[in-house]
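Need residues for this backbone.
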């Protein structure tokens, strides 16, 4: 059985929404200190919805596939809906990730949430209270070998 699903391979080989948005409304960057993978999300917000989203990921294949999938999941969603995107949802949309790659899906949700935080801060709404889930995810975002 292959390690990665066809969906993961598709998003890894042909990642959607790669790049940077100049004058983004929100930017979120997360890094994993253990493996050194870095993920940055850029969002444009219109009428409380993610109007455009792009990302730059320096990392493993799973991290690239996760970034691509997260960007697709976020597009057109309200900020509240974006906040509800969990690493498990991302992994499910990718038709599964190997167990030792699940931490990579944490990075995607975190980077996107940070971009929303940044947007809200720029709006003068403050970074807001981090969701409990995100605090938990940040704690769990350790990068295992594999
Ligand atoms: S995020 Fe570190 S190996 Fe994928």
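Answer:
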């Amino acid at each position: 059985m292959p390690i990665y699903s066809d969906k993961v391979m598709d998003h890894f080989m042909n990642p959607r929404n790669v790049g940077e948005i100049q004058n983004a409304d929100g930017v979120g960057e997360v890094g994993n200190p253990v493996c050194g993978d870095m993920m940055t999300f850029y969002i444009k917000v219109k009428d409380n919805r993610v109007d455009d989203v792009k990302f730059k990921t320096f990392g493993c294949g799973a991290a690239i596939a996760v970034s691509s999938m997260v960007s697709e999941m976020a597009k057109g969603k309200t900020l509240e809906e974006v906040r509800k995107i969990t690493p498990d949802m991302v992994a499910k949309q990718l038709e599964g990730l190997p167990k030792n790659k699940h931490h990579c899906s944490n990075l995607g949700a975190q980077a996107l949430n940070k971009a929303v935080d940044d947007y809200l801060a720029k709006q003068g709404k403050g970074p807001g209270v981090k969701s409990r889930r995100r605090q938990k995810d940040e704690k769990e975002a350790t990068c295992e070998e594999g």
